[in-house]
User: Which sequence fits this backbone?
């Protein structure tokens, strides 16, 4: 299973594109934040697909966005 | 409040219906 590319996404429907990105993001998010990975992945999928592709290739960017999402989630639930 | 269900949860292997308007 190689890296997900914009070309691979372009052949899928918008819903399928988010699913493909989510399937790749979820295990990475889970490794950072095991207990809230489903919600955090759901939040991240709101972002542009180009940004999500970048996060898949950049652990630093992903971690930064996960940290931000956790903060937003905690504020929302407070 | 409808915001209670936010954010939608992504579950691997299931269809993603989180943001149908995007």
Assistant:
């Amino acid at each position: 299973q190689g890296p997900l590319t914009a070309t691979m996404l372009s052949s899928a429907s918008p819903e399928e594109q988010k699913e493909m990105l989510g399937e790749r993001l979820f295990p990475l998010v889970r490794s950072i934040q095991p207990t809230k990975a489903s919600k955090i992945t759901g939040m991240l999928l709101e972002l542009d697909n180009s940004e999500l592709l970048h996060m898949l290739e950049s652990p630093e960017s992903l971690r930064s966005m996960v940290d931000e999402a956790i903060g937003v989630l905690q504020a929302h639930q407070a | 409040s409808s915001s209670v269900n936010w954010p939608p949860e992504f579950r691997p292997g299931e269809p993603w219906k989180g943001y149908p308007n995007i």
Chain A touches chain B through 18 residues (CB under 8 Å). The mean pLDDT of chain A is 95. DSSP finds five helices and no strands in chain A. The CA atoms of residues 2 and 78 of chain A lie 40 Å apart.
